[in-house]
Each structure stands twice: as structure tokens, then as C-alpha cells.
Design brief:
By secondary structure, the chain is mainly alpha-helical. It has one domain. 75% of the residues lie in helices and 0% in strands. Helix 2 runs parallel beside helix 4. The protein is elongated, with a radius of gyration of 12 Å.
Length: 61
């Protein structure tokens, strides 16, 4: 995810908070979805939509 900070000109603390948010989703839902993580880090996907995608995976299982 290092190249993402350069791609979107993210500040250090903004990027760190986004990484913590992604890790929180991983812990909360017990799964990882790298494609959606990267879309969130690129600011294409808002955090609420990221959580919804993780929730949908948990409900499907």
C-alpha cells in the first residue's frame, strides 16, 4: 500500500488512519478483501461502503 500514498498524495497521518481503518475491518469481520481495501485507500470507495462490502461477505458465509 506504500505506492498508494504517492498515487493520491496522502499525508502521513491521513494514510495511517486509513490503514488503521482497514485493519479494523479485517479484525471485525475476520476476512480480507484486498481489492476493496485498495479502492478505499485510493479514495474511490468511502469507508461506509468498505464496511458494507465486508459485511456482505460475512452474511454470505
Amino acid at each position: 500500500m506504500d505506492r498508494i500514498s504517492y498515487a493520491r498524495n496522502l499525508g502521513y497521518y491521513v494514510r495511517e488512519n486509513m490503514v488503521k481503518s482497514v485493519k479494523a475491518c479485517h479484525r471485525l469481520f475476520g476476512t480480507e478483501k484486498p481489492m476493496y481495501d485498495q479502492l478505499y485507500m485510493l479514495k474511490v470507495l468511502p469507508y461506509g461502503k468498505l464496511q458494507k462490502e465486508y459485511k456482505d461477505v460475512v452474511l454470505d458465509n
